[in-house]
Specification:
The protein has 51 residues and is α+β, with helices and mostly antiparallel strands. The protein contains 1 helix and 2 strands, in the order αββ.
């Protein structure tokens, strides 16, 4: 999935460690109650919304 808030946080954490034109590969593992996640944000299910 993609989430702009988390992506920006990861890029901010890496900004002094990698070149400006590079994008780090990362995985974030969450344990979240499924009832607070909306997966119907994007047709390809690549984006989610936390309610």
């Amino acid at each position: 999935i993609r989430h702009p808030y988390f992506h920006k946080a990861v890029l901010s954490a890496y900004e002094h460690l990698i070149a400006a034109n590079e994008n780090p590969l990362y995985f974030i593992y969450f344990e979240v109650d499924p009832s607070v996640i909306d997966v119907n944000i994007h047709p390809t299910k690549t984006e989610v919304k936390f309610e």
